[in-house]
Design goal:
By secondary structure, the chain is mostly beta strands. It has one helix at residues 17-20; strands at residues 26-29, 32-35, 38-43, 47-52, 56-61, 66-71, 79-86, 90-96, 101-105, 118-122, 130-135, 141-146, 150-157, 162-170, 175-181, 184-189, 193-197, 202-206. It comes from Dromas ardeola.
Length: 212
């Protein structure tokens, strides 16, 4: 006799006031008071990362119940995408509305882990808003896509503190999603979905009909 599946129960959780209360609703810039909007979000078992309209990343550590802040030097511009990764070290990648991409290698209290905050920049390839970011599982590769269809591959050497970036693919419409696994990058744009084989530099489209 087949077992009866238990019913799915939807549960509404209350807002994370402990997190929201640690993020200011307004900041003062000279004589002006600027409203802070939350623009990007990513989570994992260790952190909650929240991007904002003032270029500030708020990173909440779930184990220590602590909030830390990271930002770009210079112009304050909206963060459009954030992507966390927990591998040997904890990493967070940030993309902005003007196409800036940065990676922060976070400090860890665990033995043998990173003891100094380090930052890597993806220099000058994107010229428009970052719409997608994807890590390789080991943190050595970062792919970034923008709303003009450009996809950039960044190779990170965390030990040497080096980040080398290059344009690997250019689509005619905005990138909406990226995912990477086993030398294959899954790319979704406003017009199509494709597989990009990073070793062969070849493209295989998923399906035959363009998106409406």
């Amino acid at each position: 006799m087949a077992s009866v599946a238990s019913p799915v129960i939807f549960k509404e959780f209350c807002p994370l006031y402990y997190l929201l209360n640690a993020i200011p609703t307004k900041v003062q810039k000279g004589f002006r008071s600027i409203v802070v909007y939350l623009t990007a979000l990513d989570t994992n078992g260790d952190y909650i990362a929240v991007g904002s309209s003032i270029g500030m990343l708020y990173l909440y550590c779930r184990h220590l119940n602590q909030m830390k802040k990271y930002n770009f030097e210079g112009k304050c511009e909206s963060i459009t995408f954030v992507k966390l990764l927990s591998c040997f070290d904890d990493l967070v990648a940030i993309g902005t509305a003007s196409g800036r991409v940065a990676v922060f290698q976070l400090v860890s209290s665990l033995p043998g882990r990173n003891k100094q905050l380090r930052r890597f920049d993806v220099a000058g390839i994107h010229k428009s808003s970052i719409t997608a970011l994807a890590w390789s599982p080991n943190g050595m590769k970062l792919f970034s896509g923008d709303d003009k269809g450009k996809i950039v591959y960044s190779a990170l050497d965390l030990d040497q503190g080096i980040c080398n970036s290059s344009l690997v693919l250019e689509e005619p419409s905005s990138i909406v999603q990226l995912d990477y696994n086993q030398k294959v990058l899954l790319v979704s744009t406003l017009q199509r979905t494709l597989l990009f084989y990073t070793e062969e530099k070849s493209v295989k489209q998923v399906g035959t009909q363009p998106r409406k």
